Structures are given as structure tokens and as C-alpha cells.
From TrEMBL:
This is GNAT family N-acetyltransferase. SUPFAM superfamilies: Acyl-CoA N-acyltransferases (Nat). It comes from the Bacteria. It holds the Pfam family Acetyltransf_7. Residues 6-133 form the N-acetyltransferase domain.
Length: 149
């Protein structure tokens, strides 16, 4: 449950510039930024958190999860993840580039999955990340939501 004054809602076209600016500043994946795929949390008229479901053949990707620095560690990211999971209609995956975030997602039901086990539609999207992982030994983990219910 959100604290009083916070509102979860579907993104509107007018939210897109704030979303794009935050994604670029945070160096997140700027592909497939479609405002209608985003859930946002606003507080006092400002966006403080957002995330989206990207649609692929036989899969969805949880992407562009962002919480404003001043609002981190308050449960907003978890709240959005829970709602995006509830909205998902296909197996749900994500790409993680940070060990701390891997642990964050693991606590929310995501488990590591090998690149070879990804759906074909995601293999093409994640190809360069996998190359970066193998060639440059960069930290990259692909994860799948594991429904425990």
C-alpha cells in the first residue's frame, strides 16, 4: 500500500518527457519507450517512480524501473514491480546490470536464467548484453519471474 499522497496510475502522454529524461540520466535501457506501457507513481504532481512492461513474442520484459533518488528504499520500486507482475500476461524476464539489483529482484521472485534459456524474441534484444558479459566479463544477469503461488 502506498503512503498517503502517493498515486499509482497509468502513464499519460505528458509524462513521457520526464520518463525519458530520467531514463537517460540513469543510463537505463532507452529502447521501446512507449508511454502506454508505463505505470507511474506521482507525489505532489511530480513523478517519483515508474516502470514498464515491454512486449515480445512469447515473453514480456520488466524494464525501465526507476525511483527518484530521494524516494529510494521506501518500497515504491517493489510496489511498481508487484503491479507490473500482476499485469503481465506472459513469462516475465528482465536484464540486470548490477549485483545489488540482482539481489533486489531475487527478493521479489526473480531467478537467474541462462541466455540460452531465454525466448528467441529476447535473445535478439539481449544479444549485445550477452556479448558484453562474455567478451568483456561485465556483470550481466538475465532473470525470470518465478511464480511461487
Amino acid at each position: 500500500m502506498l503512503q498517503p499522497g502517493y498515486i499509482l496510475r497509468k502513464a499519460k502522454p505528458t509524462d513521457m518527457w520526464a520518463i525519458v529524461f530520467s531514463i537517460i540520466r540513469a543510463r537505463l535501457d532507452a529502447s521501446q519507450l512507449k508511454w502506454h506501457q508505463f505505470l507511474v507513481i506521482e507525489h505532489n504532481g511530480s513523478l517519483v517512480a515508474f516502470g514498464q512492461l515491454r512486449n515480445f513474442q512469447a515473453a514480456q520484459e520488466l524494464g525501465s524501473l526507476f525511483v527518484m533518488p530521494a524516494c529510494r528504499n521506501s518500497g515504491l520500486g517493489t510496489f511498481i514491480i508487484q503491479h507490473l507482475i500482476a499485469e503481465s500476461t506472459q513469462p516475465l524476464y528482465l536484464k540486470c546490470l548490477d549485483q545489488r539489483l540482482e539481489k533486489f529482484y531475487a527478493k521479489r521472485g526473480f531467478v537467474p536464467v541462462r541466455f540460452e534459456k531465454l525466448p528467441t524474441s529476447l535473445k535478439s534484444k539481449f544479444y549485445f548484453s550477452n556479448f558484453r558479459k562474455n567478451f568483456f566479463k561485465a556483470f550481466v544477469v538475465f532473470m525470470k519471474y518465478q511464480d511461487y503461488s
